[in-house]
Amino acid sequence: MRPFDGARVVLGVTGGIASYKTVWLARLLTQAGAEVDVVLSRSAREFVGSITFEAVTGRPAHTVLVAEGHALDHIRLAKAARVVVVAPATADFLARAAHGHADDLLGAILLATGAPVLVAPAMNDHMWAHPQVQANAERLRDLGYHVVAPGTGPLASPTEGAGPGRMPEPETLLAHVGRLLEPPGALTGRHVVVTAGPTREPVDPVRFLSNHSSGRMGVAVAAAAWRRGADVTLVAGPLSVPAPAGATVVRVGTTAEMAAAVRHALATADALVMAAAPADFAAAAPAAHKLKKDRAPEALVLARTEDILTATADARRPGAVIVGFALETERVLEGARAKLAAKDLDLVVANDATEPGAGFGGETNRVTLIARDGVPQVLPLLSKEAVAEAILDRVEALLP
Ligand SMILES: Cc1cc2nc3c(=O)[nH]c(=O)nc-3n(C[C@H](O)[C@H](O)[C@H](O)COP(=O)(O)O)c2cc1C
User: Is the sign of the CA dihedral 84, 90, 96, 98 positive or negative?
Assistant: First the structure.
């Protein structure tokens, strides 16, 4: 069973350089099990041939609206689609779509479909910044299209690329399609705040205290919540894994910075999942200048950092679901229950750092979930992605 098995996806391609990346997107969608109907604009055919798409998807690529034998292509394709994607979307396409033009196959499909539409603009950075292009993109958003903002990075022309204009990577667009294929659930439209990774406490300007957290657990929770339709804010210390698609990422360094970012995000949060491993101790008096190797201090005096859940408790909205993690090395359930009560949590995710496959760094975790009723839900050894889904199932059930 593949994630998109049997889902019909119309993949519209317009005449931009980034269309070479759309070949890879077509392949990823096909590998994920989707039946991909590629629709090329007239200009797009000058950039990438329809035969390439036909070979990659195993299905004919479509190019014409008004032609013998194709009279109802636009209606057939529009009706069958579970998602319509336009990648890359040129400035000219945005203008046509914003005004409801139907003078080519893709334009007619957009007007005839009831499926969600994902649009990935890609163009020169000055073109994207133009108020006319911005107005067209805004109009499409108002019409309910999902417009993925282009990224900043090298554009096709080596002299361009100071500002945004670059099409997101095919893997990111694949994640967006996955989200649109999910049926709406309890997290749709909710704001979920997730913390991930370690924090760093300076000892001097070049050294810090930290821990082995990779951020993998929090990133998995953020990715899964976003896939379920939530607006996700990921408050992240330095991560050893890539940040997930879709989440708004707030980068922090110290535990105090993480606390401030959590406090800010809690103002609109429906749920907070504290999967980070903030440093519990900081140097009591970090040195202003680099400590010299030959004059090492005899001792480093430590101070407790603030406890983020306790310090931000007053910022929680009524009804917000608060999830904490308890990483213990002994009497795990006892410690987790104590944390649940002391920090006024709705759910605690307990794990034993001494168990093989559990805790920091690795790709798996073995956890027990305990809500206010105290009944433990013992989960087997699972991937962190599967643990994330189990946590979110409980969060969904706890939401008012
Ligand atoms: C080499 C070349 C590259 C182009 N790249 C882009 C691009 O990345 N984004 C864009 O909006 N237009 C780009 N254009 C302009 C479009 O191809 C042009 O506006 C065309 O009419 C778009 O048609 P379509 O939207 O029907 O595909 C490019 C043109 C050329 C000649």
Answer: positive
- Please list, in sequence order, all residues whose beta carbon lies within 8 angstroms of the beta carbon of residue 286, skipping any fewer than 6 positions away: 201, 202, 203, 204
pTM above 0.85, yes or no: yes
- What residue's CA is closest to ligand 1, atom 1? 17
- Specify whether 136 is catalytic: no
Whether 323 and 236 map to the same domain: the answer is yes
Among protein residues, the one with the nearest Cα to ligand 1's atom 11 is 90
Domain extent at residue 129: 8-181
Which of 181, 208, 238 finishes a domain?
Answer: 181
CATH number of the domain bearing residue 74: 3.40.50.1950
Same domain? 212 vs 112: no
Q: Is 2 exposed, middle or buried (0-12, 13-18, 19+ CB in 10 A)?
A: exposed
Find the CATH number of the domain harbouring 306: 3.40.50.10300
59 CA to centre of ligand 1 in angstroms: 25
Total Cβ atoms within 10 A of residue 348: 27
DSSP state of 213: -
Substitution site in 11, 13, 17, 64 for ligand 1 pocket (most atoms within 8 Å of beta carbon): 17
Q: Ligand 1 in contact with 44 (CB < 6 A)?
A: yes
pLDDT, tens digit (0-9, with 9 covering 90-100), for 189-222:
999 999 999 999 999 999 999 999 999 999 999 9
* pLDDT digit string, tens, across residues 272-324: 999 999 999 999 999 999 999 888 888 999 999 999 999 999 999 999 999 99
Q: Are 214 and 127 part of one and the same domain? A: no
Is residue 320 domain-resident?
yes
Same domain for 161 and 196: no
